[in-house]
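User: Assemble these into one structure.

Assistant: Restating your components, then the assembled model:
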Amino acid sequence: MTKTPHLLKNSLKFPQPELEPVDTTVAVATAATPTPSGTRSDLEPGPRGRKPARRFSRRNLFIYGTLTLVALYYLLPLYVMVVTSLKGMPEIRLGNIFAPPLEITFEPWVKAWSEACTGLNCDGLSRGFWNSVRILVPSVILSIAIASVNGYALANWRFKGAELFFTILIVGAFIPYQVMIYPIVIMLREVGLYGSLTGLVLVHSVFGMPILTLLFRNYFASVPEELFKAARVDGAGFWAIYFKIMLPMSLPIFVVAIILQVTGIWNDFLFGVIYTKPDLYPMTVQLNNIVNSTQGVKEYNVNMAATILTGLVPLSIYFLSGKLFVRGIAAGAVKG
Amino acid sequence: MEPSISIRNLSLDFGSLRVLKDLDLNVGQGEFLVLLGSSGCGKSTLLNCIAGLLEISEGQIFIGGRNVTWEEPSQRGIGMVFQSYALYPQMTVAGNLSFGLKNAGLPKAEIAARVDRAAKILQIEPLLDRKPAALSGGQRQRAAIGRALVRDADVFLFDEPLSNLDAKLRADLRVEIKQLHSKLKNTMIYVTHDQIEAMTLADRIAIMRGGSILQLDTPEEIYLRPNCRYVANFIGSPSMNFFDGRIEGGDHLRFVSGSLNLPLAGYAFADPQGARPGPATLGIRPEHIVSGAEAEAAAISLTAEVDLIEPLGSDTFARVTLDGSNLWIRLDGQARTRPGDRLVIGFAPERAHLFDLDTELRL
Amino acid sequence: MAAMARPARWHRNISAKVAAIPMIATALCIFIGGTAWTVVYSFTNSKLLPKESFVGLRQYERLWGSSKWLTSIENLAIYGAFSLIFALVIGFLLAALLDQKIRFEDTFRTILLYPFALSFIVTGLAWQWILNPDFGVQAVVRGLGWESFTFDPLYNPDIVIYGVLIAGLWHETGLIMCLMLAGLRGIDEDIWKAARIDGIPTWKTYLFIVIPMMRGIFITAIVLIASGIIKVYDLVVAQTGGGPGIASEVPAKYVYDAMFLSQNLGQGFAASTMMLLTVVIIVVPWAYLEFGGKRK
Ligand SMILES: Nc1ncnc2c1ncn2[C@@H]1O[C@H](COP(=O)(O)OP(=O)(O)OP(=O)(O)O)[C@@H](O)[C@H]1O
Ligand SMILES: [Mg+2]
């Protein structure tokens, strides 16, 4: 993912807490999502003040024509990867990469999964896949747990100095990772976690913190303050309010955070290659080693199958989650 | 008797901004006190301080004789009702009502009994299993009151509880709150910027401005004897008419402003010291200005031209021009006056209010 | 009724403070501490292990004398300039097209955005394959009869960075498009009505009214793209490995290679400090404009 800083006050719409719909008259404090009148929120299509388009006008032809061409261009790499992965090597050597396979074979997929060789071992991508899963699950849970509590503390329990640290965190999101890589190597080595999955999990949690904290802070800040006050009058403390009041009403933001982290961590390469050892490499690193290994004959079909396999997790998330993904990356676009 | 709530020298700062300034306030046992003031004057802030939701900068707060200045909101023996209801959206009404009791670790049977009793009082028994989203505005506010009720608190704090409701419902709930108070007899502090709510509900009203209390009195007193020009202007609708002028004369004081020359014989000066010549403002409420035959007999009568008419059915308010400035008067609902008509108006000095031009305090 | 003094402050909000420890630790130890550490050690001649033998600006002299670093910088500049311009222009044009009340908007958007879900490694490998001169576009066009057709960016040191650019744009334009679309949707529709009543042509409305109104989104997009550019690493590793030769090296790769391959930590620290400096030069004026100006 493009990892980039966030603008504290940009116009992206983050999910907002859903509260009871406010009836009839004045919907002041409960309406958590004030959309300025006359503007449309998010990416919902809506009526505009322009001329309703005639079906087959020249203008429409141009618009749909252009968009279709662009869409084809964007789909091309995926298409080429898929057809290549379904061909045998002889057909690849003779044929045209854009041509559909004459004879479909799943051999490359099987090979990519269980036999493909990196420089070191030949047990296929499956090893990388399971490593990635073992990295992903704890990283996602840990980073979201930390960031949501942090965001909640920042939004509702302002204490002295909190804003300062938060600012450092957000500014830190702009710092190139390269500057912090080596000090972290040293820290992890000191505690004996360098080269372990645990170490990588910690690294992911640390670098996920700025954007996730911002995400959660903004979300919790948009929960009406009176709800929080009511809970305090009801005698609920820090954790009771978090678990009993805030958590149950923040499902959407958790989904967004999960999408963000799953794709971000799954797609990570840099941290994987630095903080783990070869037998613990995540899938992206292993994929790169398989495809770009200099030994042996290049098996393009296997390479493409492996590439698709690696892209499969984020792609499924993307296609399954639809609009939430857009929100997730809109927020994550912001990722440091 | 010991006051139920006692606030001493309370100040609160938001950063460098002093929002509450050295407030003193005593609220009696079972009293219904309304905090009234324009937006941003610090009403909610004061209420939040009493509730313990804001940490005060200076001063002390006592509730029921106990110093609660540094205590947690839940330990202060208060119940609070918010403008936006602030019901927990994921819990049923019963869940909302019992949340605080569960946090306090009360036994289950006790919780159930209290929830039932509160639900009965507020007639929300059929709604107990519903989520807030499935309730109407009035029902939500009732549930929110229920949440305060189950706490068996001595003190209830309301922060504009009715302002999210439509006018009709607001009037109904206002009556219910009043009945609730006479039934429960606990101390209530009620924030509003609605004068009608303030006048109808309050035992005493505190008018706030810029973080201070200007006047703390019964509704009647506040209406009849506002202690400063701000309060006079704030209470009453349409608001009081003002004339800037001078008090003149020796033994027989008169108020003079343009063509207005009013003998002050019947006026009760708040402070006999104030009864001397000098610049002053005279205020008179629209409903205390009489017209027609009545006006001819009044201490002062003037002819003014009608400029604008606002018929409300029960009353008609007319804006008339006098000496180039406007004043509002109240006419009978059936009055046939038209803009352009000339009208004789007058009023009695007893009905007027005099304020010092500089200090704006009542004379 | 006695007055009570304010109790000690530190244990107020104690849970919140405890909960903020990870954030505080990250901010202090890693973001501030780590950065400072690297900057300090960039003035040493650390090799395999960091050591405190300070050599002044020696590492920087060597850095700026290294052709690999100079190539990296040049590549970053070319890649950065083009990807900034193209991503903004294409992203905006696509968003404007999608904003024309069209049918299948969701489908088009889904297609344009999916590359962003993929990792740079996958993106790089896919385009490495398509741009492969023996099998990819060049081979296909030659197969159609145009024998002299040459299109082998990944094997030509002069244009290899443009090959990377193609992949980079494919990956990120969808995101910029989505941002722009959100921006367009945020514009009051009455603006369009007013412009129509005034008889302003659509393109003029976009150019002189809509785009200036979207200033915030454009700045977001620019900051987004710019800080992505500086971090470009995985894409190059996957697509070209920095080759042919050193023709497609980038600073992030230079840092990695120096630190973990050639055991030249000092060089890595100096190079990463230069990257930090670049970010500071980009971000500080922006932050000043965005936040500093508001305060007045
Ligand atoms: N958290 C805060 N930080 C800084 N200033 C605040 C904060 N909360 C309130 N204020 C300021 O304190 C003053 C009093 O606010 P308060 O909410 O008490 O007004 P109010 O009388 O309740 O008004 P309203 O009728 O609009 O509810 C206002 O000027 C407000 O801007
Ligand atoms: Mg208020």
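Residues B 43-44, 159 surround magnesium ion (ligand 2) (CB under 6 Å).
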